[in-house]
C-alpha cells in the first residue's frame, strides 16, 4: 500500500502556486510604480535636454548637431524612457497594475527594503549620486560603469539584501570622493581608483551573498559584464567619433586617448 503521507496534497500544491503567483504580482506592482517614476524622470530629462541648442555658431563657424551638448542627455533620456516602457509593459502583462485580489488583502505589506516607495527612493538616490558626485569627479567611463553596476544589481537579481549593500557602497564611494577631492593628493587617478575599488568590493560581497545560487551568480556576472561593456562602447563613440567632450577624462579615457594616439602614429 502507498503511504498517504507520500501522496501530494492538492491543497498544499494549490496554496504554494497561489503564494508564488501572489509574490510575482507584488513584484510587478513594485515594478509598475517604479516604471512610472522612471518615465517621469525620463520626460523631465528630455524636456531639459531640448532646451540646449543642437547647433550653434562660434566665430562664424557653425558646429554640427553631433557635437551638441544636448546629444548625450537626449540619448540617456530616450534610453531611460524606452527601458521604463518595457518595464511598465511587463508589469501590466503580469498583473502588476491590477488591484490585489481579496485573498491577498490580509497579507502584510512588503517589507521596507522591497517596497515600491523604497525602490523609487533608491533609484533616485543612485541617479543623484551619479549626477552630483560620480560624474563631476571621476573618469566618466568609470563613473558610468560603477553607476550601472550599483543601479542594475539589486533590481535585476531581486534579492532584498543587495539593496542596502549597493546603496551603502554608493554612499561610501561618495564620501571618499568628496573627502579626496578637497585634499591635495599626489595620485593623479586617486578618485578613479576609489570607483574601481568600490565596484570590485561590492561585486565581491554580492557574489559571496549569492554563492549558493548558481542562477543568481550568472545574473551577477551578466551585470558586471554589461556595466563594463556599455561605457567601453559608448565612451569612444562620443569622445573620438562624435568629438563630444566628457565631464571628466581620467584613467580609462586617458588610456583610450593614448591608444588612439599610438595607433594614429603607427598609421
From TrEMBL:
The keyword Zinc does not apply. Keywords: Membrane, Transmembrane, Transmembrane helix. It comes from the Bacteria. Signal peptide: none annotated. The keyword Membrane applies. Residues 36-176 form the DUF1468 domain. The chain crosses the membrane at residues 32-50, 70-89, 110-132, 138-157, 162-182, 188-210, 222-242. InterPro entries: DUF1468. Pfam families: TctB. This is Tripartite tricarboxylate transporter TctB family protein. It comes from Halomonas sp. H10-59.
